[in-house]
Prior knowledge:
By secondary structure, the protein is mainly alpha-helical. The chain has helices at 2-28, 35-58, 65-93, 97-109, 115-143, 154-176, 183-211, 234-243, 251-278, 288-291, and strands spanning 147-148, 151-152, 221-224, 248-250. A two-stranded antiparallel ribbon has the order 1-2. A hairpin with a 2-residue loop joins β1 and β2. α3 (65-93) packs parallel to α9 (251-278). The model is unreliable at 277-292 (pLDDT under 50).
Amino acid sequence: MLASYLIGLREGLEAALVVSVLVAYLVKTGRSALLWKIWVGVGVAVAVSLAFGALLTFGPRGLTFEAQEAIGGSLSIVAVVFVTWMIFWMAGNARSLAGELRGRVDDAAGGNPLALVVIAVLAVGREGLETALIVWSTTRSVTGTGTVDGVPTWEPLLGVALGLATAVVLGFLIYRGAVTLNLTVFFTWTGAFLVLVAGGVLAYGVHDLQEARFLPGLHSLAWDVTGWYDASSVYAAVLKGVFNFSPQTTWLEATVWVLYVVPVMFLFLRAVRRRPTAAARPAAPTSTKETA
């Protein structure tokens, strides 16, 4: 549930920051009458994200085991691609996000009446679709199917719901000026954590493809600790729920995990270290007031 909470918090906060920038800019420039378009776009994005999540959860039902594993493994790998792109994109664009959005609002306000709706749909919908895919992948890696008797497991769903709720509250407080959040620190820590989460999702996706017989080596194990590993313990729940640790891990899973986590973590931390230098100007430290 912790992984789902942090995913919901991070993705939700990104969306909340985008919405706060759009709303604040329209209000400050005397165009409050256009706010309804932003909220329509947000509503459409939420609806599309929920529909996508439902499709991921219930769509593969009725397929053969191999087909379900192939679809699940492929989508897990797609989720890792999205997570990786999102981590590096936010690391490099957090400072310039507000300026880009304001430029888009200015262009859209005097043009097509639906342009502002589209901006909100694309900005919020991207985060929503990523959240649905990532949470589905992490949930599936814990339960094997993402459901129990056809019903989605409640712990990851509760985690992401709490994360999104926290993000909405923070977004409102940021808009009202009550909270100044150091986005650099926030996105650095959550980014590093998500690299580890994505590594586990990738390894599980590879395992799915091995079970679907798309990849070899299903019975070639790098380690098997089931002799002392208590799957019902608290530590097992944390390791499985957060990092997707498997007591029986194939050599291919372990290799893929290392080949992903080590270089991605190195590149991410290097980008974080270089960011203050690249952005070193006589400006105040990064905060949401600058972003909004």
